[in-house]
Amino acid sequence: MARPKHKLSSAELKAKPPGKYSDGDGLWFHKRPDGGAQWFLRYTLFGRRHEMGLGSFPAVSLKAARQEAEKWQAVVRDGKDAIKERERQNREAERNLNILADIAKDAFESRKAELKGDGKAGRWFSPLELHVLPKLGKMPVSQIDQRDIRDTLAPIWHTKADTARKAMNRLSICMRHAAALGLDVDLQATDKAKALLGKQRHTATNIPALPWQDVPAFYQSLDGGSVTELALRLLILTAVRSFPLRNIHLDQIDGDIWTIPAEAMKGRKGATSDFRVPLSQEAQKVIAEATPLARNGFLFPGVRKGVVSDMTMSKFMERRGMAERPHGFRSSFRDWVAETTNTPHDVAEIALGHTVGGAVERSYRRTDFLEQRRKLMERWALAITSQSTHVVKLEVPR
């Protein structure tokens, strides 16, 4: 059957008086009394007549209107309602326009419960915030490919390898999160980007640590009574990580025991129990000295709000001309234990809050060696408050 000949021409459209004019094949031109005009498609499906708007004139030209009409008539011939099909496609397109910044925030919110301190320190989100979102944050996540990721992380791929690795990991989580939301994303984009970026040349280096022989002199120099100095003293005495130390709350202290909530303990994945830290007499003295400075129950408050930052303690050591960092005192303690005591391996590792043994072994071993660790930490306190650094073998009962 011959296709109907088009009835309208571009030249006559503006001069048309108000009314509805057929161009053929279901395409109509509607000129309103106010001078405005629009296109619509008239079609019949399952015995019912429908009218579908195709845009206003002259924004949509006659040629463009005919192309749209032809596209949607093909949909009708397939037995689908053109209006409903267009709505479905619009919903899908709208869903796929979710920008990465919003997806990243949603992914972060959904993972807060499994992050230390509910992610309040911002360490999970910061690699994205600093190195990915400034370039890709406003981009629809469905349009992000390996080239975009490569170009974004290439400047730090070798020079800041660990940060780049974390950023890539977080981005991969965001892409999987988007897929779980029903968005059309390339789940292999990060792996492809890694292949384009190549193997990282950067070699990881350990955090600089002060030799244990030099710890006593440094500890005894922390005599200013400031929050930073008191925090560093307790950090050294307990050999814990910076986060639980900086967030220590008076409610967590009971006599000579400091109980760190399980969620604040890094390196104890899957742990459901809190971690008890025995406090030496020297550690209790530091806590007593810091208590008057506490704010909202936090022993080491920040200058304006929150708690003292890890950067504040690091900068304090840097101003002393030191390359070492606060976290390194854990290594100082571990070296001291290995070189000057006969402490069993498991006791030494648990003193650092490390998980020891497999799941089955841990299920049978119910002790946390508190009494043995209590004696060990008392001896460590004596060692760093002593004027002498003479090595003495210390026996720790098995």
TrEMBL record:
DNA-binding is among the record's keywords: yes
Keyword Transmembrane helix: no
Signal peptide: none
CDD domains documented for this protein: INT_P4_C
Keywords: Coiled coil, DNA integration, DNA recombination, DNA-binding
Gene Ontology BP terms: DNA integration; DNA recombination
Coiled-coil residue spans: 76-103
A GO term, aspect molecular function: DNA binding
Occurrences of domain Tyr recombinase (ranges): 205-377
Record SUPFAM superfamilies: DNA breaking-rejoining enzymes (SSF56349)
Family: Belongs to the 'phage' integrase family.
PANTHER family: PROPHAGE INTEGRASE, PROPHAGE INTEGRASE INTS-RELATED
Protein name: Integrase
